[in-house]
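Researcher: Re-running this chain for the archive, since the previous output was lost when a drive failed. Same request as before.
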Amino acid sequence: MLEKLEEIRRKYDEVRARLADPAFVQDHRAVRDAQKTLAEFEPIVGKIEERRRLVKELAGAREMTESLSPGDELYQMASAERAALTARLEEVEAELKVLLLPQDPNDSRNVFVEIRAGTGGEEAALFAAELFRMYERYAESRGWKVEIVDRDDTGIGGVKAITALIEGAGAYSRLKYESGVHRVQRVPDTEASGRIHTSAATVAVLPEADDVEVKVWIRPEASVSGTRWTRCTPLSYFRRE
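Model: Regenerated structure tokens:
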């Protein structure tokens, strides 16, 4: 495990060095990928640094206990500190083992969250709106950016459907298990007689796809089923004649 930790630390330092290079930061896509890599490594590097500190402090506490007699007051303090450091070191090493487990390759991606009102009429639309506000506030609490892509509102504050892009480190890893049908049973604001209604809304969470550059080359005189295509400028697309 120690070799793996040293390799991660070395890669982390290399990425930070590249981000400090003025020539490297001109490539926006490379910078974005590097920042995502740093975000993935930072929790592990933080634990690596804590482990190094604990090992150093534990060595000092061990040396002190070995140089003192059991009846010395400082020996009791050093022994208590040594036990606490040993326990914490075991916890940190266990946390590192979890962090080193293979992850879903999409975990670090941004996500699209789509919420649709299901059964329940206007109450379902209100429930869908409340779900979106819940995810929006959760994203804000983690410092993520929320951008509404599409929204279909109702007249009383609900939403029939809403799609949002949530940008932030680990957004997909935190939200991917929210996909599915969400149900609520309550007395809705739209109910005058006080009866309990059951309403539902569906949530879909999809990782943001990578940008893909596609180039299509067609000969200007190419014919498809007897149709002639002519290149148009300046947009460089083809129109049918």
